[in-house]
Amino acid sequence: MAEGAEGRTRGRPPASPSRAGDSLTLTPRLRCAWLLRVCRLHGQRRWRNQTAFAQALSTLRLQGVHPATVSRWERGLSAVPYDAVRGYELLLERPNGSLTSVFDTVLRYYAPVSRTALPLSRLHPDERTAWQRTEELLRGAAGGETLDGDAWDELTALTFSAPRFSYGTSDLWQSAAQRLLGEVLITDGVNWMQRFEAFNRMLAHPVLGAEAVEVLRAVVADRSVQSLIGTVCMYDGSDRAAAGLQVMRHLRSPADDRVFKGALMACVRKIHYGHFNGAQLTALSATLAGVLADPGAGPDAETRELVVSVLRQIPAPRRHRHAVHVLAEEQQDKALPTLRPGSRGTARLLSRRLAQEACARMDTPPDGYHDLILPALIEEALFHPVFDVRLYAATLIHASPYRAPVAATLLKELSATWLRGDELWVTTLLQALRKLGGPTERSAVEALVVDPRASTTITDVAAHALGHIGGTSPAAFWARALGRHRTAWRQGSRPGHASVLDRLVYAIGRAGESGILHTVRKDTAMPAAVRVSARWWLRTPRP
């Protein structure tokens, strides 16, 4: 029987893809299946009927789509092709790329590097047509023509159709890769995901990969580059020896804390997918153990937690004896800081409560549908020790109809937590709102940036959130925030104000406020590094 028909649902109600007591294994396919399912069920009422939706997909030249096909896709039982995801975008009236880019990004993160296939399968044209179209797009990219996210997606997808075309055109590909990576650094949302996926394809490509790694190395060497943590982390997209050597080098002798953290984040996937050999794993464990044992190293709580997580990823036989000793002490030391509050059980209960509150805010709750996956994604977005896992859980929620209700629920929690003075929970919620928040949440984050009662830890995270959270800030706010933290930095009242100023310039740059950037660049009362950041934004062309 069809589900979600007009009026009262006939037959069995729409159910969550999996029930297994209190446990739920979120496979990559199940994550994306959930996104399709909730977008359909919370969309137009007519599309709650699987039969009607399958028939509508068939009219979009998708062959062999039946209600059972849709059911398998939405329960994670079979892979969804690219054209089907585009069909969901069209029928559900979603912006172009709003679902396909999420599929590409999430599926790539949770899969080993492949030099022969794309995360979301495409139907490719014949080789001759692919060559012609690739050449057209490549010459446009290298020649300075405007390429949107769809064009970058098409260009790099085509390289897997005709990989031999890549030979003999390294100068064009290098120019294209340089431009593409530059655009990755300054875009956001769907525009960023499309370009990020495109550059990852270059990194993974059997021919273009070497050029892409070299382009990445050169950009990381530029200390003025913004988003340096995420840039260094992109080495996890290549299984080439050169990429692994760069990560090891940046861990042993990092230029600054941002480079170290980015290299550390890259280790999560590189260890999991076997990019390091045995000797490198042992050397890596010794380096990280030294960071934990050195009282002068002083990594922040989040970085320290990630160091421990990466050390535990390394197989026990490959751990240096110093790492074994440090990890043993780590398990016994109850005084070590923990970034995200609460035990696993507490985190799960709290995530369920937040999910229930968010679902209660929904305008279109489908009859009989109990979402088991949303609480699990909220738990990941708030509590997982690895930043990228938190980011991609939040990305899935952001692309779903739950974004606004979850953001409103987190804002309510933030307000109550701020009154209680729980700094750890405040920063955790701010990090989630960085991806999930909209204009209403932005106003609350702005207030924290300029609140004299807030610690520099809170204002730093809040200022960083302004670079990605929805909505815009008026010029008067930017002037007030810059003035307050510039004065505090010059007075030396508390450490950390220089970092807050740098975060603010990052957000101002993303907002395209060139006038304010010019003012910062000329202001000799600002920290030198902040003025350098403003100069970088001004000289970086926007796509």
List the uncertain runs: 1-14, 16-22, 332-339
- Helical residue percent band: 55-70%
CATH class of one domain: Mainly Alpha
**Strands, count:** 0
CATH-level-2 architecture of one domain:
Alpha Horseshoe
Q: What is the H/E string?
A: HHHHHHHHHHHHHHHHHHHHHHHHHHH
CATH topology of one domain: Leucine-rich Repeat Variant
Key descriptive features of the protein:
mainly alpha; 543 residues; 434 Repressor (Amino-terminal Domain); globular; Leucine-rich Repeat Variant
Question: How do the helices and strands line up, and which of them pair or pack?
Answer:
Elements: H1 28-41, H2 50-58, H3 67-74, H4 82-91, H5 100-109, H6 127-142, H7 149-158, H8 170-186, H9 189-204, H10 209-220, H11 228-233, H12 241-252, H13 257-272, H14 278-293, H15 301-313, H16 321-332, H17 344-360, H18 373-383, H19 387-399, H20 403-420, H21 423-436, H22 439-450, H23 456-465, H24 475-491, H25 497-510, H26 514-522, H27 528-539
Helix pairs in contact: 1-5, 2-3, 5-9, 6-7, 6-8, 7-9, 8-9, 8-10, 9-10, 12-13, 13-15, 14-15, 14-16, 17-18, 17-20, 18-19, 20-21, 21-23, 22-23, 23-25, 24-25, 25-27, 26-27
Task: Please explain how this structure is put together.
- The structure is a single chain.
- This protein is an all-alpha fold.
- It has helices at residues 28-41, 50-58, 67-74, 82-91, 100-109, 127-142, 149-158, 170-186, 189-204, 209-220, 228-233, 241-252, 257-272, 278-293, 301-313, 321-332, 344-360, 373-383, 387-399, 403-420, 423-436, 439-450, 456-465, 475-491, 497-510, 514-522, 528-539.
- Helix 12 (241-252) crosses helix 13.
- The model is unreliable at 1-14, 16-22 and 332-339 (pLDDT under 50).
